[in-house]
Specification:
about 120 residues, Oxidized Rhodanese, domain 1, globular
């Protein structure tokens, strides 16, 4: 499934994604579980959107829609830990008519390549 998704979506290398970190027209979306984020940190300024809710948050007709996904002119880049969940997510969103790309090698490679990371505190 992941290979099929990757064959039809836009993928960014880690280097390309790091170069976009300060671009105000780019929204980086982290679909990892909150515990993953708390354990290993997050890309600064990224939006957290749990994988299980993403279709509902993106769909403007959903009662769970989030305005962050309705910003004209923004480029959306999704990521998970290794690029598998984000590939499937972007393929699904593409089927819904939502334009997005994903970080091909995920947050793990982001860290390995020296991309900036900020801590995510545990919430009480």
């Amino acid at each position: 499934m992941v290979a099929t998704a990757r064959a039809r979506i836009s993928e960014l290398s880690t280097e390309e994604a790091i170069a976009l970190i300060d671009d105000p027209d780019v929204v980086i979306v982290d679909i990892r579980d909150i515990r993953e984020r708390q354990r290993s940190g997050a890309i600064p300024g990224s939006v957290h959107a749990p994988r299980g809710m993403i279709e509902f948050w993106v769909d403007p007709d959903s009662p769970y829609h989030k305005p962050v996904f309705a910003q004209p002119g923004k480029r959306y880049v999704f990521h998970c830990a290794s690029g598998w969940r984000s590939a499937l997510t972007v393929a699904t969103l593409q089927d819904m008519g939502f334009a997005a790309s994903h970080l091909r090698d995920g947050f793990t490679d982001w860290v390995n390549q020296g991309g900036p990371v900020e801590p995510v505190p545990a919430k009480d």
